Amino acid sequence: MESTVYxxxxxxxxxxxxxxxxxxxWTLINIFPIYFMLTFSFKSNEEIYGANIVGLPHxxxxxxxxxxxxxxxxxxxFLNSTIVAIATIILTLIAAVMATYAMxxxxxxxxxxxxxxxxxxxxxxxxxSIVPVYVTLKNLKMLNSYxxxxxxxxxxxxxxxxxxxxxFMEDIPxxxxxxxxxxxxxxxxxxIRIIVPLMRPALSTVGIYSFLQCWNELxxxxxxxxxxxxxxxxxxxxxxxxxxTTQWGPIGAALVIATFPTLxxxxxxxxxxxxxxxxxxxxx
Length: 284
Prior knowledge:
This protein is mainly alpha-helical. The protein is built from 13 helices and no strands.
């Protein structure tokens, strides 16, 4: 059966302008919040409160960013978010690829049951476990530290990471493992020299997914870290809005600092993100 491919170019001369018009309108609707937030961050209170709500700033106040970075300490919070995100990505990648290899390439009793156990993580909302995770971290004396966020973020990203890695590892022929063992590679040698290099597309996808999961998370970051030295960007923006209720320009600057890294990652790596979820949906 031949697949049908729809194309705007093949549409009638009447339908084509309507489609393009709707697409342009939809694009503008999606871009407007980004434009509004960016211009908002350069405006004074007078412009924000009614003199110039939507238009470009009459005076570009770069001092709003200076206030956000120094007075609001957004530079420190940005560094904390970066540390947490990088550590979470590394921990998730290591745990996911090793668990996937153990469950799919090594034959042992209970591996299918263990896979089902990991997949149960997809059904548990991250914020439904705040109380038990908080109690556990408190008993381990890990509150108010980077670990208080890195370990829970990695744990809740692990189920999806394993699901993605499973889909990619299934496409790696088992004959490569056998050939590596014939050449003298042990279990770890086969894993590090054969499997990990071939899993690079999956690892990059898992890294992107983990970053998007933890960068803008607020509840865990607000509850598990009360010390200013370990606050992340979402908590910093929340604190800034409480301390500077009359200075909306710096708040807009803080929002740009917190939001734009996620947008940049998604814009440049959106194809990999979409391809990973498509692969998981087809193989699942």
